[in-house]
# Entry
Amino acid sequence: MTASNFSSLPIIPQTLEALEGLGFSGMTPVQGEGLPLILAGKDVIIQAQTGSGKTAAFGIGLLNHLNPRFFGAQALVMCPTRELAEQVAQTIRQLASRMPNIKTVLLCGGKPFGPQKDSLRHGAHVVVGTPGRIEDHLKKGNLELKGVKTFVLDEADRMLDMGFAEVMANITQRLPKDRQTILMSATFPDDIKRISRSLQRNPVQVTIDDQLTHADDVLEQLFFEIGKHERETALLALFEHYRPKNAMVFCNTKKQCSDVASFLCQHDIEAIALHGDLDQRERDQVLLQFANGSCPVLVASDVAARGLDIPALEMVVNVDLPRDADTYVHRIGRTGRAGEKGKAFSLVTPADTHRLRVIEDHLETPCICDVLASLDRDPNYELKGDCVTIQLDAGRKQKVRPGDILGALTGDAGLRGDKIG
# Structure
């Protein structure tokens, strides 16, 4: 059964009201195929990209199965990264906004442990978090899972890539046998098949062929032949030709992320690096600047970028081809979402021939390489942020009021009040 609209399904009225208030008009393919199965209580494997609407699909389903009068964990959603967990928790809270007294708790590293413990002590219907922090609360006796009806593994393939297999196994052992298990994964390698066999009962698989549907959304998906030492100049040529308003650039090493970001800044393209050497506070600051538009280009490694959901991204560039085809699909899946047009470009050196063939086999289509000399370039192109992010290390303890900050910006700094968000 494939549904065409939410009202045709047995969704509780409060969730339908929330969907209408959030502007959900039609269903995505993931929701149309997956949601009827989830609402029916079946174990489901959904293979689809980030940004396909899968969070709303399992969010609606788990809310439908809640008992509002029981203040214990009835749904557990496990995500690979803090950023994805925050996005999932926000979506579930929005979907539950018309349901009185439904509590969703977020359990992630990089946040104080005590407030999370207090939230659990007061009861929570839905728990969303990362494997490590969920396991910590289980070991401390703060979290009880015997009442869980719905268990969701979101981006399960990414969790395995990040080395969470043992932690995931420890957590799932504490779950009741009689439950619904929903497994979300952009790819479906053998490790995911093994997890499905161990956790699910007669699962139904829903596969949304994102490689085909996404190819329609991506305006351009091109490969450019370059020399071994031409990556940075080739990247600059892409920016000067396509003139994007924002972009995400992928590199295979942490050092290269920093070097490429510095190179772009030297050529009047504001860029910032995101890689595994950043601590959580630094990572949050980088993501904030990129998300709010004060820095329009993010140069990232795959490990650092896992779980990021970035809407309205114009361009993705692979400075290095990834080591496997699944990672390539993850990277280009960040542009051209929800019907919006995007661009995905890859730089290919003679040493990348094997990697290119692997991607071709995976996509089942030839990857034709173009030459950069064919691109017209704007030598005056520059890319700056739409705004400036200011961090103030002062607050009530220093007797600084919001009006003081606004006064300083509109007075001494000379900004107009309507220019401050």
